[in-house]
Amino acid sequence: MAETETIEQRIQMILKPAPNVHRKPSPLAKLGATAFTLLFLLVGFVGSQTTNPDATKAATEAKINETILTSIEFRDTPLADALNFLQQKTGVNIILQAPDSAETKITLRLKNVPLAEAVKYTASLAQLKYRVDPNVIVVLPINSDLEQDTKVSERPVPTARGIIEKKMTSTILPSVQFSDTPLSDAIEFLAMKSIELDETTEDQNKKGINIVINASKGTDALITLRLTNVPLAEAIRYTTSLAGLTYRVDEQAVVIEEKAPAPSGDLYTEAIGISGEAIALFRPVKDAKKFLESFGIRFGQGATAIYNQGQSELIVRNTKGELDQIKAFIKAAAEGKLDQFKIEQGWEDVFPNEAKGDSTSKLDSIIIPKAEFNKTPFADVLDFLRQRSVELDAEEIDRANKGINIILEEAKRVEAETVTLKVTNISLGNVLRYAADQVGFKYTVEPNAVVFRPKD
Questions:
Q1: Which fold has domain 56-141?
Q2: Which residue, of 6, 137, 293, 354, has the greatest Cβ tally within 10 A?
Q3: Number of Cβ within a 10 Å radius of residue 310
Q4: Which residues contact 149 (CB under 8 A, 6 or more apart)?
Q5: Which residues pair with 214 in a beta bridge?
Q6: What are the tens digits of pLDDT across the range 414-442?
Q7: Is the model's pTM score more than 0.70?
Q8: Contact 314/288 with Cβ under 8 angstroms?
């Protein structure tokens, strides 16, 4: 049996508070614990950033669509510098993953456009595209393996396309005179006049339209053109046509580009009924294929078009894509929406006799007392007759509207061609026709001009 004293000592030991048996941690142990804690927090932070990349990407897309650049002007600026400017201007990361294109020269002038549109046009001029990733815009080759689904990132931003179209038709240019003017200078002139003559808004920052040249061919063309009192849309159309180019109305600008090549693929035959206001449009048509071509419809090898006036039916053999374009064109014509449709497509136009108006009337009513040319260059003949049409136009009271506009397309084909002709008391239309016949050209009458083109 245990002694009493021993039992009392044991009870006291049990009741006594336990001593602190933990040792003071060493500095190394503290450092390890801190590092572990930081690593844990970092992993948690990174995880929180990558768990929802779609939301981050959507935020980036929203930012580049909402960030408005009031003015951009690049003139032969290297692509890398242009993208760097956009990055510094907006604070959005922009990465160029096409190093071979870094020195590609960019010439571009835009105003009041979202960053997304600015990057799109800039990349497009370098024959590239862009993609939106979380927190960054990537500019890369069109056929790059890095391509992802860009349907969301390149979705159209809220557009002022209708405003652009209205400005193109309502802005009237009193005078346009180009003589061997480089295309870029001619387009810059039209863009500046669109600002100067814009009466659709009082806000100086919103006046005018953006015009972008996006073509590798035809940009070195020299434009010779003289027009009076024409809508801006017509001035752009004639200018681009003289350079062998076309145009379309984009989300934020008028884009000048190369004409699409003739379509290829399987041909289909379809009979399309002509109704509504389209009947009047087709009534004077003799060559349906050429008529449709003048509106931008393309016909490849073996494609044809015949208009049966008795049945009010157009019989067309063409590719499916062009058939769809023809049907859309006819539908717009039938509903009286052809002007709007023409602007959207950037199509050239041919007008029925009843729509030719003043130009046709003046060709018949202006009588040339005497015209004598002896081996005179064809371009000089047209210039002389243009001036005489102004002097002899007795129908117009306003001098600004006197005479007719004369446009010579593919002028290089007749640079060496001359005209020898002597006539008296003959209508302006006949003089023009006789002169054109000598050089293998013909003319078509449009509401704002008489346009000369090769016969073949």
A1: Phage tail protein beta-alpha-beta fold (3.55.50)
A2: 137
A3: 5
A4: none
A5: 257
A6: 888 999 988 888 889 889 989 999 999 98
A7: no
A8: yes
